[in-house]
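Reminder to self: C-alpha cells first, then the designed residues, so the page reads top to bottom the way the pipeline ran.
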C-alpha cells in the first residue's frame, strides 16, 4: 500500500516490497 511507502526514506525496501 502507498501508505506503508511513506516515509520512503524510513523504509525504502518495505515500500518497494509492498504491492
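Designed residues (19 positions):
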Amino acid at each position: 500500500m502507498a501508505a506503508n511507502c511513506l516515509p520512503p526514506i524510513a523504509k525504502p525496501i518495505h515500500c518497494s516490497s509492498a504491492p
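The chain has two helices and no strands.
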